[in-house]
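We treat protein structure as text, and this decision shapes the records that our systems exchange. Because each token names a local backbone shape, the row as a whole describes the fold. An entry from our holdings is shown next, in its original layout:
>
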Amino acid sequence: MSKALHIESQVAEQPLRLAKQTAIVICASAVIAVCARLTVPLPFTPVPLTLANFGVLLVGLSLGSRRGFAAAALYLSWGAMGLPVFASAGPGSFAQMLGPTGGYLWAYPAIAFLAGWIAEHGQPSFLRNLTGAVVAEVVLFVAGISWLAVVTHSWRQAAFFGLYPFFFAEVSKIMLAAAAAVRLRRSL
């Protein structure tokens, strides 16, 4: 009889767990949106300096691969629907996903998944998070620069617009996300 009660208890708790996980994903998506709105437009490039990829890394590292992917995909959905969640330097809505920053935006779910996957496979630590963040950032910049190369018709111009000005800021974001995720993951 106790096994039956245990199963019944688990079934009764399932909607509550689903609601909690949904709320976590929605809140994480909102974190990415707030980070994306914190931007510094640079006059020599169509790509602004933003905290969006910091937010994506933090969410992926903290929540893991599946919830991180879901939060980043939800963020893109909000932006595509016209909610003001993308960096203010662009046109907003779905048009922003096709503009110069489109390669970075489309990669967000994949980098959240990748960073989260690396973070959740092994002993949780700053070094594991750092590894996940670095690998994810490489993928992000490959996607972003590739898209910029299509838009500008030049790999050189794409690197000038989308990589060189951001290198030192990205190192700081990676370190901060890796450190913060260690603490957040424990609390979640």
